[in-house]
Amino acid sequence: MTVAAWTWTYEGYEPEAERLREALCALGNGYFVTRGAATEALPGPAHYPGTYAAGCYNRLTSTVAGRRIENEDLVNLPNWLPLRYRMRPADAPPGPWLSPDHPQLAEHRQTLDLRHGTLTRWSVYEDAAGRRLSVEQCRLVHMGDPHLAALRTSFTTAGWAGEVEVVAGIDGDVRNAGVARYRELASRHLTGCDTGSEDDDTVWLRCRTIESGIHIAMAGRTRTAVGGTASDGGGAASGGVTPRTELTSQRAFHTLMLPVEPGSTVVVDKTVALYTSRDPAIGNPLRAAVDGVRRAPDFPGLLASHHRAWKHLWQQAKLDVPGDSGRILRLHLFHVLQTLSPHTAELDAGVPARGLHGEAYRGHVFWDELFVLPFLNLHFPEVSRALLGYRYRRLPSACRAASEAGRAGAMYPWQSAGDGREETQEFHLNPRSGRWLPDHSRLQHHVGSAVAYNVWQYCRASGDTAFLHTKGAEMLLQIARFWAAAADWDEDLGRYRIRGVVGPDEYHDGYPGAAEPGLDDNAYTNVTAAWVLMRALVLCRDLPEARRQQLFERIQLAPDERERWDDIAHRLHVPYHQGVISQFAGYADLAELDWDGYRRQYGDIRRLDRILEAEGDTVNRYQASKQADVLMLGYLFPPAELAAVFRQLGYAVDDDVWRATVDYYLHRTSHGSTLSALVHAWVLARARRADAWMYCEEALTGDVADVQGGTTAEGIHLGAMAGTLDFVQRGMTGLEAHEHALWLDPVPIPQLSKFRVRLRYGRHWDVDLRIRARRVRIAVPESDTAAVRVRLGGRSYTVAPGTTRWLDLSGS
Ligand code: IFM
């Protein structure tokens, strides 16, 4: 692989690496994403050509291990990629259909161009008689018009004349088969497939999802291009070749016979439009798709407008970090923007944990937005707002879930998808043991605090009081209410307790040998609950009187509820042992794991839970965490705020306690989630520790090196990708965007001592921040808005529009 500033090039074809490359070379626009699969290869072990539209889910029932279970999946849509070809020499029988898997492949290379949002593949084939066919193919998923995608394929011959036969079209015979662990689950989500054609050069396919009833339509136009200019659909009349149309109930294809001379180049352009009945402003998706391709410009025109759209995105989300780290960060930013772009702001869609790049976790929405929105807030606040809208529209569902659990307020689901009900599976497969096991991860009620935290962060960074006082307040208050209902007074302890939960460390889901799942007094859950309750109280106080009354009436907030919130916010229990914060009550009683022994025996022990279960043991018996749990608190809260939340609860967490706590869990965490290294990098950077870089490196390489062993091929890790961007943007700069000032507190990491970020802050669209080892440069573009106030090292500065200031980190 060669990596340049804006390109990632994979030399040669490696079938075993192909699915990983498909995920890393996926193209999308925030409305839909298509994996970077070869267009000429059939789906199989090496190839999985998935296409996924944001928020397009369907529910199916399966029977596994004798139980009926329901799952809602992000649906793999009809495959628009197919474009196969073969040589038909004039003097010999037709050759075989070619693909990278065919022995005639002589050369192969593909380049992902981040700046322009294209994937270009080059293949050279040579048959036994020395006839060569070079194929260059460029694809895009349009960032300007989110319904369009296109492929330009150029064929150049050497040593023969005859025809290149090309078959291109849309394949509706697809299912969700991208994750081996889900093999036993029902996977056919589409029904009612129907195909047709329009004009000479357009075929279409429509279908609908079985249970959610979403109508999906794709139309594909195939044209030949002469000298790089596509024919206008008039086929042979305009110098092009008229395609032959072949339709079956699930496939709509064109076949073209392209005459070639030795050394000549022929070009085929395929343009596709995708619409669904979930789109805003939609009538008939099929009509929209057919009209969409009919109106679409030719490939050069599409490419030009696509480039412009990407140029604007890159301007809004600039992050310049030198060297290899910078190149990886750019790839992360590329995939974040392909999953969540300004087009997403028009949709009812959440933050899918694995991007729209594969089927892992079924495209569900977890708490990962906690690592994504803080980055988006400072570039695309309207996208953050829309993503919070996804949560707001599911507030009634979260309130129903709370009420069914006998609680007040809103209990957001651990896994969310279409309508906001709990989508967490009840059983999961341990691929190591082959056993289906009960899944209690739905007890991760801390997801509600993540929603509340994001509401607060977004509103603070964007100054969007309209949202804060309306939807934001309603969510925040209902989440606070849930925590108040979850907390029980313990007379002996003289404190409130929240029992029966699971913390971010998903390994521990119960006490060893206990009949019921769940843990008591999870420190992360309790501290964030106390924070939510306090924020809710502050917000109640700050709401304009008329709005306060309206909201209290709307959610029927009783007069004494706020008193109880206040009491709980000050008296929730946080357990300690040996001078450190305990992950949950009883953590200290668990056995110590022989970490070295397990590492020696298994090498990679990231999924220690699976290893132990396969051994007939359980990770619940050990002081062993999958990912940051207590330490998550040091990710959410800068040191002063962390100390303040603990003070509010009547505990002292000074530097010594925190340092001891960090050390304690560092030695007891297996990092079985990509989020873990990221959080540790933040926590250690904030504590000014040199080992921060090691975790930062692991977080950076998580997907490009597929650190979690085969998981990236099933979808990128969006939280970790966005989290690394935010690590530079806020973690390294110590940036906090307050309403009246930007606070800065840069963290010195020698390996990342020089970088530049551009932010949207208030009405300034392009505040330019450059960090050097000892200095910070802030430039505010010319405008008639107020100066930007900056707080650094305990002092305040102003930077007027149109000016630049260098500030010395030593305080001068
Ligand atoms: O939300 C995460 C969780 O924290 C760890 N397991 C994977 C989930 C989805 O990314």
Please tag this protein with its features.
single chain; alpha+beta; 11-stranded antiparallel β-sheet; 20 helices; binds 5-hydroxymethyl-3,4-dihydroxypiperidine
Written account of the structure:
This protein is of the alpha+beta class and 812 residues long. It has 20 helices and 35 strands. The strands form 9 sheets. Strands 1, 2, 9, 10, 11, 12, 14, 15, 16, 17 and 20 form an 11-stranded antiparallel sheet that branches. It has a 5-stranded antiparallel sheet with strand order 21-30-31-32-35. Strand 31 (764-771) and strand 32 (775-780) form a beta hairpin. Helix 6 (381-393) packs antiparallel against helix 8. It is globular, with a radius of gyration of 28 Å. The relative contact order is 0.08. Mean pLDDT is 95; it is low at 232-239. 5-hydroxymethyl-3,4-dihydroxypiperidine is lined by residues 353, 361, 366-368, 504, 506, 673, 675, 719. The site of 5-hydroxymethyl-3,4-dihydroxypiperidine (IFM) has 10 residues, from loops.
